[in-house]
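User: I'm new to structure prediction. If I give you an amino acid sequence, what do you actually give back? Let's try with this one:
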Amino acid sequence: MNIGIAGLGFMGVAHLDAYARLPQVRVVALCSKNSRSLAGDFSAAGGNLNRPHMPQDTSSMHKYSNLERMLEDRDLDAIDICLPTDMHADASVAALAAGKHVLCEKPMALSVPDCERMIEASRRHNRVLMIAQVLRFWEEYRYLQQFAHSGEYGLLRSATFTRSCGLPDWSGWLLDDARSGGPILDLLIHDIDQILLLFGTPDRVVAKSMGGPKGIAASFLYPSNAEVRLQGGWFPAGTPFSMGFQVRAERAMLELTTVGLFISGETGQRKKVDLAGEDPFETELAYFAGCCRRGSQPDACPPRDSAKAVEIALLLKQSSASGGEQLKC
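Assistant: Good question. You get back a string of structure tokens that encode the predicted 3D arrangement of the chain. For your 329 residues, that looks like this:
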């Protein structure tokens, strides 16, 4: 299976690294306006996860400076879109119309109508569309879904998700709200997607600014009265990246902290959960490639769910801008 990657910032290079470890998958084309990146120099890729980039020999790959030319490449089965968010919808629709399967980075788009355009293009052209909600393939979060849905620990009672990092100064477009959607859409979309997986669509949401205009504290309000909160965003430069959660069920609590994943039972005994150490990007991209080979839609990460996450993120953004107005979902 032949892949082309459009966009060689942090995420595009992370995907390039992961594809190199997958059997029966080859990255045969790259698209970027940065000639150094096309030549294999990824020193300016940046990012907030401190992932080392593997040296890559790009000499045999097709090189393109614009997406339109790349989509004419008949060797390509799929396009991995890691472009700025404001380009996601148009790039995805064009790639699907060109007969390519599409993996598009999160967030899906900047508006719900653009998300719908992408879904309709996938249906019309009978091609796989998947949004790269990588937490769905992250071991700690996969364990969380098992914890929540197994029934072993009873109903969920409360959840708090946190995610924060310093201002993403490695990429100017991220700081342009009109291009990235800001931290709620770009960063907290991960946790919004997880909350929707665990609890479904809330009745209402409310958000307020926390620690400046780039961070929020939000609540998701459900008829069950489950207490669901989300905190985080972009903070002053140099703030280390962190993510975590605390989810309580009737008979246990699961916590992700900076030192690992822990479960506490009814007796209060706290035990660390041992995980295999899988690379989530590799797992995600292997799943996408499998869907493409089978011609099956990505049931583990359906684009309709990603569109709903965008819808909720936009409501949180609106609520925060209003000073904390409760908005109906």
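You can read the tokens as a compact description of the fold. Here is one thing that stands out. The two ends are 40 Å apart (CA to CA).
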